[in-house]
Amino acid sequence: MQELEQALRDLVFKRDPAWLVGIAKERQLVYRRLIHNNLYDVIISLLPLTYHFAGAEKFRQWIATWLEEQGPKQRMYWMIPVEFAAWLMENIVSENLLLAELAHFEAMQQCAENAPNTHLSCKLGIYYHSVHLISDENSTLPLKLERPIFLLIYRADETVRWLEIEPQVAQLLAKLAEGASLKESLDSLSELYADLDRAYLTAQLAGLSHRGLVSISETHPRDESAVYS
Amino acid sequence: MAKNRPSGVGIGLRLQFAEELVSTKATNASFVEIAPENYLGVGGYRARLLAMAKERWPVVCHGLCGDLAGAAPLDQEYLTELKQFLRDADVHWYSDHLCYTHLAGVETHDLIALPLHEGAVRRAAKRIREVQSFLELPMAIENVSAYMRMPGSEMREEDFVAAVVREADCHLLLDINNVYVNSINFGFDAKSYVDALPLERVLQIHIAGHHRESEDLLIDTHGASIADPVYDLLCYTLRKMAAVPPILLERDSNIPPLIEIEQELETLRICVEQCHARA
């Protein structure tokens, strides 16, 4: 059975399919086509701007490579584009940072939209392009920013929104997301910034907490941020 | 306390029409079906829709990624989350497909036929027993559409399905459209197939439309109205059953306006009544 599963994986996901012996290729192709179409459809529908600006051919090549090299690992259907975007971040970031960031931003919107009600929906993204200003297919692609922007992407009233935050606040959130306590996080940042204003950062964090965007607890640090830098 | 058992005709809750469906006053749907893979751990809009659906109808949960005969170990963490989800949904049973969904480390998000042999029967039955026992719910397995016979197949499909149901001591979710699709794709008699199944084990029926790709190849798309031969096969099946199980209309692609889905539910409801009355 294991050998058959591997053979089927090679049939379905290898760019050059490994055909099963003794079975009409036309029938084997049906599985390959159905599975690819299903996965392509969900990725394109949930990463529409990345698809548009990458162009259909390049985008489809990326998906094909992802499917051959890795493919979906999670059961949740809406996670397929999120997994693909994570792969893009690792694999095309040097080739096309803007599109990698755009895919990440679109994926984080999915994560915020679907985050469980029992957790904060907030995700953190750090971008070198103003991907949050690409509102539709007619948008002009932004040039690289001189400094990165830090965005909290969150859900409020079933609508996904974003909020630009200061770099040190973002770094603090990232530390908290790693599991550090607030004190540990501030101590860690103090090593990076000699003039760190702990009171100011704490107040900023409290403001975000008051808006329901983050949860600060010495004993139960929030763990919901998806961070890349 | 569990809600009323699902009965009559129902519809799969799709995001494309869910908002309209849960808000409409008059509907022909008497239950709705959801895939946990689309709702488990999800909040916001989807969670609200699901909550509204649960308020209004009995909900049945139908898995898409159970990989009930796969080689990979069962995912206990997922099953634990699923168990809680099913409890919260107040369901009477859980169903999934008799097929591969996971191939050597990759989730296909699709349904891939199994090799039809005794080894696969034993493997599937063992896993279904384990899942059923863990979930503490009756489980029904669905016969899937197929486009090729897997290497090593040596049983008739209906015998394979019946053997798994028997050995796993589980129930059957009989997909009438899948029987018809496979009867064309593999050239067998659909009624004989039904005759060989343990119909007393059928907990639920699925019905849907398909796409004719060629003379001998149908694709199970859930993207069209139910074809006449599938209605005929449904009628044939119902006449052989002591009671009519809940029947779900699947419409997952090429989704029309809700009013057309409601019309199809009504057609289906009338067909079911007439078929059973003539039994």
Our estimate of the beta-strand percent of chain B is 15-25%
- State the secondary-structure class of chain A: mainly alpha
Instruction: Give the number of DSSP strands of chain A.
Output: 3
Give the overall pLDDT of chain B as a whole number: 96
* Count of alpha and pi helical runs of chain A: 9
CATH class of chain B: Alpha Beta
Question: Would you kindly provide a brief summary of this structure?
Answer:
The complex is a heterodimer of chains A (229) and B (279). Chain A is mostly helical and 229 residues long. Chain A is built from 9 helices and 3 strands.
Describe the protein's topology:
The complex is a heterodimer of chains A (229) and B (279).
Chain A: H1 2-13, H2 25-46, H3 48-54, H4 56-69, H5 79-91, H6 97-114, E1 123-129, E2 144-156, E3 159-165, H7 167-177, H8 182-192, H9 198-210
Antiparallel strand pairs in A: 1-2, 2-3
Helix pairs in contact in A: 2-5, 3-4, 3-6, 5-6, 7-8
Chain B: E1 9-12, H1 15-23, E2 32-34, H2 36-39, H3 44-56, E3 59-62, H4 76-89, E4 94-97, E5 100-103, E6 106-112, H5 118-135, E7 139-142, H6 157-168, E8 171-175, H7 176-186, H8 190-195, E9 202-208, E10 211-214, E11 217-219, H9 228-239, E12 247-250, H10 258-277
Parallel strand pairs in B: 1-2, 1-12, 2-3, 3-4, 4-7, 7-8, 8-9, 9-12
Antiparallel strand pairs in B: 5-6, 10-11
Helix pairs in contact in B: 1-3, 5-6, 9-10
Keywords:
heterodimer, A: mainly alpha, 3-stranded antiparallel sheet, 3 strands, disordered C terminus, B: 279 residues, alpha/beta, TIM Barrel, 8-stranded parallel beta barrel, two-stranded antiparallel ribbon, 10 helices, 43% helix, 19% strand
Written overview of the protein:
The complex is a heterodimer of chains A (229) and B (279). Chain A is mainly α and 229 residues long. Helices cover 53% and strands 12% of the residues of chain A. Chain A is built from 9 helices and 3 strands, in the order ααααααβββααα. Chain A has a 3-stranded antiparallel sheet, sandwiched between helices. In chain A, a hairpin with a 2-residue loop joins strand 2 and strand 3 (159-165). In chain A, helix 3 runs antiparallel to helix 6. With 279 residues, chain B is α/β, with parallel strands linked by helices. Chain B has a single domain (9-277), classed as Divalent-metal-dependent TIM barrel enzymes (TIM Barrel, Alpha-Beta Barrel), CATH 3.20.20. In chain B, 43% of the residues lie in helices and 19% in strands. In chain B, helix 4 links the parallel strand 3 (59-62) and strand 4 (94-97). In chain B, helix 5 runs parallel beside helix 6 and helix 9 runs parallel beside helix 10. In chain B, 47% of the residues are buried. The chains are: A mainly alpha (229), B alpha/beta (279). At the A-B interface, helix 1 and helix 2 of A face helix 3, strand 5, strand 6 and helix 5 of B.
